[in-house]
Design a protein that fits this description.
The chain is of the alpha/beta class and 499 residues long. Helices cover 35% and strands 21% of the residues. The N and C termini lie far apart (47 Å).
Length: 499
């Protein structure tokens, strides 16, 4: 895998056995994020100092302990500091500050490690494990399903199908999967296997509809990668069909299942910051991560930045405001320089302005090849959600992968003119709700799997994403594409045979 640093292409080789080479979640990705996170961490530390100053700790005053959500090492950073500083034994507060920073940093390393090496639990003997089949030996499959499944006693990743038998067999051997289907009919063979109860569909977006419909037709529950399909009409059809068949279908917006995301939603809904005025979601990765022949740049396969990362930004704006965009007032694509399509209909980046009910405005930005500043300074990956409210602001760093690292900054206006503010930071790696399961090392995908299994087993999931929600998200994406002038992604030609 190659990564551009200051304009120089650096090639890194993967040694990790669990993550497919080239995956955006590969060890290389983690190393790159580590570098970026270190910078964010420094900013964090500066912020922490300002928090301390606010409470008078650095100046030697008494600390008012501010209880926030649990952080890397169990308690919140503020809790650890609070306890330490309130002891008042004369030791330097800076030592405690250092401890907190180290705890945060070590917590980050611990989570990255757990993401790639989650503990294994034996399969349940009391509740029949759900046998999963994977359509395609996709890069994302290890991170999104295979690794999370290891710690779920009711999940067995049993089969994989790939268009090439050797690829299917190699993938199966690498990940300890019992059954490998290969060849032009492999996907259908997997669906025809009566042992497969649930299908994970990480095919290119343009094939989501066809293979989800076929999987449902074969009586399988489906965990479907985002974005659900190429058009809102296809998404509606899939969910209606799942309902008709009494099967579970979930669009895999994994981030929504993480407690940090739930906490942000809770803060915004609580009224603590007053009414939302403006929301913004940004998701971008620097040029060099994604190869030019990637499915993300293939129009026929449902490519485009708005489909890929943009679908998260749209989902996040809709989820956090609890409403649907009423209009897209502007949408500016940055076109992928296609060698096969002229003019290119694939956006490598998209910037859009939206309106929501009650005079709320929204902005989204996504980019799959964010170019370096001044041609040489590489851009940082961006995964940011921000809300401006009547009574303050909320910033949520790394909203889409909060399990790796995140930072919720809540700034409340304390004077009428808004000049004086009270600031706090929350980090939520474990659920705060008593009835939720979860560990600080659980990835967003692990939380998602928990919900999916609970739904299949007829139990109440911790949280859920409905079919209407998925249809509305595709509707929002369509509005952006229409406004951009690029038009919708091509609808599937597949029609389920009428029996
Ligand atoms: N939830 C998340 O965090 C993420 C989700 N995704 C989503 O997952 C899906 C797959 O992404 P990713 O794993 O990165 O993609 P990959 O290219 O690695 O995987 C796509 C798979 O689709 C199969 N495929 C079938 N037909 C075609 C075709 N005509 N051209 C290319 N591939 C084909 C291939 O299977 P075969 O093995 O049979 O050749 C391939 O393994 C996308 O919908 C993407 O949006 C991606 C990354 C992260
Ligand atoms: O779903 C995704 O999440 C992470 C991104 O880097 C990737 O392109 C996208 O498909």
């Amino acid at each position: 895998m190659a990564y551009e640093v200051f304009g120089v292409r650096v090639c890194l080789k993967s040694k990790n056995a669990d993550t497919a080479d080239g995956s955006v979640f590969s060890p290389q990705f983690c190393v790159a994020s580590l570098a970026c996170e270190t910078v964010i961490l420094v900013i964090n530390c500066l912020d922490m100092i300002s928090v301390l100053e606010e409470y008078g700790v650095v100046c030697g005053g008494r600390l008012r302990v501010h209880s926030a959500g649990p952080c890397a090492y169990g308690g919140s950073a503020q809790d650890i500091l609070g306890e330490a500083c309130n002891r008042g034994d004369g030791r330097s507060e800076y030592l405690y500050l250092f401890t907190v920073i180290m705890a945060s940093f070590l917590g980050f390393l611990k989570r990255i490690r757990a993401l790639n090496n989650p503990p294994r639990v034996p399969l349940s003997t009391e509740s029949a494990p759900i046998k999963f089949g994977i359509l395609g030996a996709a890069n994302i499959a290890p991170v999104a399903l295979i690794l999370p499944a290891r710690s779920h006693a009711e999940v067995e990743v049993y089969a994989v199908a790939a268009r090439d038998l050797a690829k299917a067999q190699a993938f199966a051997a690498k990940h300890g999967i019992e059954k490998a289907y290969g060849g032009p009919t492999a996907y259908q063979q997997l669906l025809d296997d009566p042992r497969v109860a649930a299908v994970y569909n990480p095919l290119p977006n343009g094939l989501h509809y066809e293979w989800t419909m076929k999987a449902l037709s074969a009586g399988k529950h489906v965990l479907l990668e985002k974005p659900s399909s190429d058009t809102a009409a296809e998404t509606r059809e899939m969910f209606e069909y799942a309902e008709q068949k009494g099967l579970v279908l979930l669009e895999a917006f994994h981030y929504r299942f993480h407690p940090a995301v739930q906490r942000v939603k809770e803060i915004l809904s609580s009224g603590e910051l007053g009414a939302i005025k403006h929301v913004e979601a940004r998701m971008a990765i620097p040029r060099g991560f994604i190869k030019d022949d990637d499915i993300r740049f293939n129009y026929e396969l449902g490519g485009g930045a708005m489909m890929d990362m943009g679908c998260y930004t749209m989902d996040c704006l809709r989820y956090m405001t609890g409403s649907e965009p009423t209009s897209v007032t502007s949408a500016k694509p940055d076109l992928f320089p296609s060698k096969t399509q002229s003019p290119s209909l694939v956006d490598q980046g998209m910037t859009a302005e939206l309106t929501f009910p009650n005079d709320v405005t929204g902005s989204l930005f996504c980019h799959l090849r964010h170019p370096p500043s001044y041609y040489i300074i590489p851009k940082m990956p961006e995964f940011l959600f921000e809300a401006e409210c009547e009574g303050g602001e909320l910033k949520f760093f790394i909203f889409a992968l909060p399990n790796i690292y995140h930072y919720i900054e809540v700034s409340t206006k304390t004077s009428k003119d808004g000049q004086e503010r009270k600031k706090r930071v929350e980090k939520v790696y474990k659920p705060t709700q008593e009835d939720w399961s979860g560990e600080d090392w659980w990835s967003t995908y692990r939380y998602q799997l928990e919900a999916f299994v609970n739904k299949v087993k007829g139990r109440k999931p911790q949280t859920w994403i409905t079919g209407d929600d998925a249809v509305a998200n595709m509707g929002g994406i369509e509005k952006v594409y229409e406004k951009s002038g690029l038009g919708l992604r091509p609808a599937s030609e597949f029609k389920l045979p009428v029996l």
